[in-house]
Amino acid sequence: MKKRLDPEIFDMPVDRIKGGFFSDKYFTRTGDILLKDNNHARVVMQVFTRSNGILCGIDEAVAILKLCSKDPEKLMIKALYDGNSIRSGETILTIEGDYSSFAHLETVYLGVLSRGTSVATAVHEVVEAAAGKPVMFFAARFDHFSVQRADGYAALIGGAEGVSTDANGFFRGLQGMGTIPHSLIAAYEGNTLSACKAFSSYMSPDVNLVALVDFNNDCVGTSLEVARYFNKRLWGVRLDTAGDLRDISVTSTGKDSFGVCPELVLKLRKALDGEGFGWVKIVISGGFNTDRIKRFVQLDVPFDAVGVGSSLYKKRIDFTADVVAVNDKPCAKAGRSYNLNPRLEEA
Question: Taking the model in full, what pTM does it have?
Answer without folding.
Answer: 0.94
